[in-house]
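Attaching the record inline, Q. Sequence:
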Amino acid sequence: MGLFPYVIALAQSFGATRVIGVVTPAVARLYRRFGLDLHNMGNVAASQRAHIVACSIDVDAALFKRLQRDPQALLYEITCYGQLGQPLA
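Structure, as predicted:
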């Protein structure tokens, strides 16, 4: 989950209100275990064993509360990291 909050904060900064992804069922279960409210986007019958599932998640204040992260602080960390690797002129 280390990179996920940064991706969501960056998506929100570009105006995203929902993020869609394709993950394995195990990763979807892991995200749900972390308290994220994933919405399945396809219909897979219980008898079918899907190797991947399409999910969406709403990008809102409640998501960042569940992640226990501040979106502005995450963006600041991205900006600071990006400045560290610049070559000297």
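The helical segments are 4-13, 25-33, 61-67, 71-84. Residues 5 and 67 are 7 Å apart (CA to CA).

More tomorrow.
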